[in-house]
Amino acid sequence: MRVSYTTAGSCATQIEIDIEEGKIVAVEFVNGCPGNTQAVAALVAGMEVRDAVKRLKGIPCQGETSCPDQLAMALEQATI
């Protein structure tokens, strides 16, 4: 399943996610801090969606949300 999520309140403006059988296959952030977003994408590749949400949800950056937090929100929305 391919998920396209428009973010709110983070440097990244959109997140593209590929999920198969409850696991994250690939993540691509549009905009954002390249080093950080590439690192987050690499770290969650192969991870169970629910585990990624547990680890990333609620992480703040320059406000109440962040690129990782937005990824958690996107994953939650995709799996509801």
Note down, in words, how this protein is organized.
α2 (49-56) packs antiparallel against α3 (67-79). A hairpin with a 5-residue loop joins β1 (2-6) and β2 (12-20). The chain has a single domain, classed as Enolase-like, domain 1 (2-Layer Sandwich). The chain has a three-stranded antiparallel beta sheet with strand order 1-2-3. The mean pLDDT is 96. The chain has helices at residues 34-44, 49-56, 67-79, and strands at 2-6, 12-20, 23-31. It is globular, with a radius of gyration of 11 Å. It is an alpha+beta fold and 80 residues long.
What's this, in brief?
With 80 residues, the chain is α+β, with helices and mostly antiparallel strands. The chain contains three helices and three strands, in the order E-E-E-H-H-H.
Mean of all residue-level pLDDT scores: 96
Distance between the amino and carboxyl termini: 13 Å
CATH fold naming: Enolase-like, domain 1
- Approximately what portion of the residues adopt beta-strand conformation? 25-35%
Stretches where pLDDT is under 50 for at least 5 consecutive residues are none
Q: How are strands sequenced across the largest beta sheet?
A: 1-2-3
Q: Report the count of strand segments.
A: 3
In this structure, how is the largest beta sheet organized?
3 strands, antiparallel
Descriptive tags:
Enolase-like, domain 1; 3-stranded antiparallel sheet; alpha+beta; single chain; 80 residues; globular
Give the arrangement of secondary structure elements.
Elements: E1 2-6, E2 12-20, E3 23-31, H1 34-44, H2 49-56, H3 67-79
Antiparallel strand pairs: 1-2, 2-3
Helix pairs in contact: 2-3
